[in-house]
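Model it.
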Amino acid sequence: MQNSYKLLTPYIIVFIIFTLLILALHGFLIHHGIDAYLLHGANLFFLFISILVFFIQKKALQNKNPNVFIRSIMSGIIIKMLLCIIAVLVYALAINKNFSAASILIGLFIYMAYLSAEVMVTLKLNKRHHG
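Modeled.
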């Protein structure tokens, strides 16, 4: 289990980097109409989703059928996309007039950073399992 926590390090690093960036640029973001609180929420949201998908993929690697691992990767992508769509819709409906498209775009950039970390982690996980 210790190896699992070590493999989560890229996610933690991405989380810390974006948390510090958002905190450091808070005034700038607010001044330009970007919802810094939404970005903090998106950062935390993507961290939890990434960790959830990691454990789904880790469990799938234990199955002798290699197709299970591929299905877990595809399931992770679908889970993240659906949750992102739902989150954006909830944000749009809740905020209504103060909707910030720039905040959503920055949130998608945060998503891409977590996706990059996920690729790194998945490759390491697969290498450890088969190597």
